[in-house]
Amino acid sequence: MSQFDSADSAIITISPPTPESMTLAPSSSSPSPPSSCVPIIAPSLRSKVRRVLPDDFKIPEPDAMNDPFTILFDHTFAEITPIVSTRPLPTNDAAVIELLEFELHYGVKCSSCVQAKIRCTRGELGRACYSCVGRGCSDCSFTHLTTLLKSLSFQRDQYLQGECFSLMRAMADDGHDSKWFDLRYETAKRLFYEAAQGALDRFEINRSSASLGFNSFVALAESVHDAAVLARLWASLKECKINPGVLGMIKARVDVLDEGIL
Fold this sequence. Notes:
With 262 residues, the protein is mainly alpha-helical. 48% of the residues lie in helices and 4% in strands. Strands 1-2 form a two-stranded antiparallel sheet. A two-stranded antiparallel sheet has the order 3-4. 35% of the residues are buried. Residues 1-36 are annotated as: Disordered.
């Protein structure tokens, strides 16, 4: 869970998602995290609160057309990591790490492990899951920028929805005006985006090492000069469900050795 201090030092806790709502692997039966749900105010609560809130008060509405967590591409179609704050929290801040570990306890699997039908475990987004590292898979979906942006968007919406409810109740109970609400709601948004920027920075640091597992297998294959030994290694790795990319690389190395090219 992620927690952020509001302007009044109150703590707003993000509601944990169910595994079904946060499934990141492709699935026709599992819905994706909602892209925007801030703030969904129940009609009954809206009518009750409206009676005591200022006439000029407007409930914040999401702006899906200008969502800072939208992925962009440059002229070469390379992904551009968005900048959501110029004052990011340090990458080792607890709030930053919590954002990257949000789904850790909810059984979310990467798409590679789902396809291979194996157990999937990880520490935080940006790092390939332990299964992908062990199998030499360099394309774990936990290292995809789209995966992080979906997660941050979901967490932001949940956090701001909770903040909105809390502030509206305070307005109704204590008679605060719309300016009081706007100031604190904007502060809550700023605090979240500062943490989110720290998470984006840490994510980039994490995924810079995503290909280390695959590179280790490349180094292993290139250190073997006996085709028969390498073929036995290929067979053993295939039984262990090592990533197809690794198996293909080793098979190509076996073919080269068989032909006596090296």
